[in-house]
């Protein structure tokens, strides 16, 4: 007789009250023992196939939950793995999305297997499985790029709220086996708490001048002005206190407006220039107004009669790092729109330190580099109005988009043996994709001395 045919007989036999009584010490079953046996009877597989489905379901559940601590770490801006590896937050953000997809696939398989063998309605934790699963699925749906970029503020609120539901749902769903899954849940809580704590520390260090006396808590002085001819908001911030001289050009920071209705919002912007003084550090940001907070900031600046608006902003940072430009012989910067803020001072990093001066805006930065014989600047205008290609004061102006792939391949082919080329890109998504494809094509063509660096224009 096969095992599959014996199992129903054993289950039927255990339902006999006399058999149950005989299994108890002294022949008198206690309430807890009866509950334990009834639970075994409810969950005991009646066939080998059902047992296989149960094992498959449990393995998928373990694999799904084991992804969540990684998911939380990779999605945090204060990520210890960023400090250890030196990789960018953009890289870990891509990993975060892939790990989320893997976790959702395992979750779907777990729920499907439990539904197939009919245990979702018999177990007390079955409903919490559905709530956590629906929350994870909803997070995936609202994370598509076209939704995230158009309704980022709504996406952020939903993302955080649904993440809380997922953690609570998993905790309730696994409370029967908390000794097995409790570690995963507490790692998630620790990762989230560490990220929030570091944000608070960075905000305090970058904005508060803690000292005894009249100005015990002095926030950073900030002015914002809207440049209509360039459709750009220029933000100048004077920081002091513990964060003095922590910031460098090419890094980025998150800006908050604590007096706004949505005071919790924070947005990342590249630091265009830094001027150090004995008592402060003057930072400059160039912000392209879009929807949401940047649009509201633009309207506030336009209402100012002087064109310059004193405003209270908090800064959280610094994030990112400077690139090792000194190790390359040829540098190519592909910059689109306000992506110039990230690469603004990079040409000057190749100059001796004594030759570098404080920068105030893009004009001063580029003027310092245009006069150099080893520096060439091409400006490609992609607006609706066509222009005539010409050369003005060391700047070549072209109509239309550049052929990025051709430019990289041309310079890579001209490199002497042992010399290295670095291609940098910062701009809209399709612009960066083209630059990445061009660098990849050069490497595949045998130019192994080409390296590619990219700064995300948006997440």
TrEMBL record:
Pfam families: FAD_binding_8, Ferric_reduct
Segments passing through the bilayer: 129-147, 154-171, 183-201
Catalytic reactions of this protein: 2 a Fe(II)-siderophore + NADP(+) + H(+) = 2 a Fe(III)-siderophore + NADPH
Coiled coil location: none
Membrane topology: Multi-pass membrane protein
Name of the featured protein: ferric-chelate reductase (NADPH)
InterPro entries cross-referenced by the UniProt entry: FAD-bd_8, FAD-bd_FR_type, Fe3_Rdtase_TM_dom, Ferric/Cupric_Reductase, FNR_nucleotide-bd, Riboflavin_synthase-like_b-brl
Alphabetical UniProt keywords: Cell membrane, Glycoprotein, Ion transport, Membrane, Transmembrane, Transmembrane helix, Transport
